[in-house]
Specification:
ER-Golgi transport; six-stranded mixed sheet; 6 strands; Beta-Lactamase; alpha+beta; golgi apparatus
């Protein structure tokens, strides 16, 4: 069973609007999660400009020795990215499922203001259920 460590949702201007830590060790504090989200947003934007391929939409995967960062960017510019164990299968499909949950439980919520931090229990509950349904572990590193 592959492990998911963190989930980030970044608005189109690069602000962190949702963060969930699923690891039991090496947790990120608030400042570190904000820094990482800002760094990823910047690297994603730079990769679009530096790409030799016309029509490039930015980095989708950053592979490191101890983790992988997978990114999904919606048409509205909202980015979701997941830190997972190296070589975890099916993360792209999981990110698309998470975006569908975001659209259903956050964007359709009449009390949610677009681009603001996400505070929605139904989103978090269904997010955890989707991760478990896809057979990912949400604890431990």
């Amino acid at each position: 069973m592959a492990s998911i460590y963190n989930l980030f949702v970044i608005n189109k201007s690069g602000g962190l609007i949702f963060y969930k830590d699923y690891g039991s060790t090496g947790r990120l504090d608030t400042n570190d999660s904000l820094r990482l989200a800002s760094l990823w947003h910047s690297m994603h934007a730079i990769s679009i400009q530096l790409s030799p391929t016309p029509g490039c939409t930015g980095m989708e995967v950053l592979e490191a020795d101890t983790f992988d960062l997978h990114c999904f960017q919606s048409l509205t510019g909202t980015k979701l990215f997941v830190a997972s164990e190296p070589g975890a299968p099916g993360i792209t499909a999981l990110l698309k499922t998470i975006y569908e949950l975001y659209a259903d439980y956050v964007l359709k919520n009449p009390f949610y203001e677009v681009e603001m931090p996400i505070r929605c229990e139904l989103f978090e509950y269904n997010l955890l259920q989707a991760i478990r349904r896809e057979k990912y572990s949400v604890g431990g590193r």
